[in-house]
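Bench notes, afternoon.
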Amino acid sequence: MDNFDKYTEYTKAHNWEAICNLNNVKIDSFGTKKELKVLPNFLEPDEIVFALTSGIMEQSETSNAFDFGTNTWLVVLTSDRFLFLDSAMLTSSVDSQSIRHDRVQAVSASQGFILGKIMVDLGSRILVIDNCQKATVSVIADLANKWLKELGNKTNAHLKQQAVSVASAFDKLERLEKLHSIEALSNEEFKAAKIKLLSSDEFKTEKEQFLSSL
């Protein structure tokens, strides 16, 4: 992610305006000033904020009981998830919902004449955040898809590394068997080396990783 260090710095400083400026958009605090103020309370340790906007989402089962109809939510794209915050109009309570990135298939944006909307594809359904600041929707969609791709690449690289590690363990066992077959190892030496390899923590860990990847 470009400017990752800057996003980290501004998140730690709770400087949401600087994050928006980094994305070349103005901070969108329409109807979400209370949510912006309490946002730090809902971030997890080391969670980084990439982008913010506000938008309209329909009431859900957890929406504030004192609000009616559709609600204006603070929409936050972070390194871990999409985070949504909604403050009640008549109380100090704040509802929060989140969608982890491993549930997201893709993110798209639609820009109208004045406002825009964000569509988060969850596979089984599409979450729509409407009436967003026009410039912010493409920023969030672009950053989200870029980050999802980076996360996918990291996962694939990790799985490949696991496969290499498991293969190396199997290679050791195969080499032992070849040495034994050409009588470079005695029966006692082969048996002792095989027991040592199969009982090693490294082999057990690699075996578990291999089985869990199937």
